[in-house]
């Protein structure tokens, strides 16, 4: 029905790697794949194996669950979009630090895949949307910090030189040219 792989981390995983919960839901225990380092797995590539797998009004939705958290939707594939690289953005939850009673099964991170109605799913892949928002926030913070070093305060306003955006952007470009990893620091 579908296949998955973790970019730069795995070969395609067989559907048998997932535990089938029922006819329309599957779970992947991340301990099977990476143990406790699940949060280092940033993306999942999911793909339909043929255009005959799903009815036109259905999709495969991807959910993630960190230990102690609820499942959160991250994205989907369907016949019109048969493959996608979906950012996982694992939920953070303070209850992850729970002390477990002796002999109890450890909490694990999981990826869930579920057949759902296309119309019931958000239009955007939420993981991608969150990643774009966080990237914009980091770039904006970089600009603000740069502007602060050249500004003066007049009342409740910051006053900056008129060419501040051009100066910041030139510095941003120069750093990116000198250090190929510079831009990667702005991504998750």
TrEMBL record:
Residues 132-185 form the Hikeshi-like C-terminal domain. Pfam families: Hikeshi-like_C, Hikeshi-like_N. Residues 17-120 form the Hikeshi-like N-terminal domain. It comes from the Eukaryota. InterPro entries: Hikeshi-like_C, Hikeshi-like_N, OPI10. Belongs to the OPI10 family. This is Hikeshi-like domain-containing protein. It comes from Riccia sorocarpa.
């Amino acid at each position: 029905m579908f296949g998955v792989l973790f970019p730069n981390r795995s070969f395609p995983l067989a559907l048998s790697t997932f535990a089938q919960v029922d006819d329309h839901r599957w779970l992947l225990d991340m301990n099977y794949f990476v143990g406790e380092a699940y949060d280092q797995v940033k993306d999942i590539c999911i793909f339909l194996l043929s255009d005959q797998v799903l009815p036109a009004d259905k999709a495969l939705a991807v959910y993630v669950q960190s230990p102690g958290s609820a499942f959160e939707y991250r994205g989907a594939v369907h016949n019109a979009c048969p493959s996608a690289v979906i950012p996982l953005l694992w939920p953070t939850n303070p209850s992850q630090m729970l002390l477990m009673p002796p002999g109890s099964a450890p909490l694990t991170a999981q990826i869930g895949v579920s057949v759902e109605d296309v119309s019931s799913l958000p239009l955007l892949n939420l993981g991608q949307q969150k990643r774009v928002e966080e990237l914009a926030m980091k770039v904006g913070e970089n600009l603000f910090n740069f502007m602060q070093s050249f500004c003066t305060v007049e009342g409740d306003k910051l006053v900056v030189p008129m060419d501040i955006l051009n100066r910041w952007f030139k510095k941003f470009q120069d750093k990116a040219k000198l250090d190929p990893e510079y831009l990667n620091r702005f991504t998750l």
